[in-house]
Design goal:
Length: 54
């Protein structure tokens, strides 16, 4: 079953952001994010409830 995850990211230049993904696990969410964007910086992935989205 897929769950919603929030990905908070920061690169080596001080740029920060967040995105949301529906994935089977935190590991799948991280792999997708890194593969999709070629991202090598820091990421924090946390489960969240849809009601938390703005």
């Amino acid at each position: 079953m897929k769950k919603d995850y929030k990905i908070e990211w920061a690169d080596n230049y001080g740029t920060r952001g967040e995105t949301f993904i529906l994935a089977s696990s935190q590991e799948e969410a991280e792999h997708w994010f890194r593969d999709e964007y070629g991202f090598t910086g820091n990421v924090t992935i946390t489960p969240f409830h849809n009601s938390e989205r703005e």
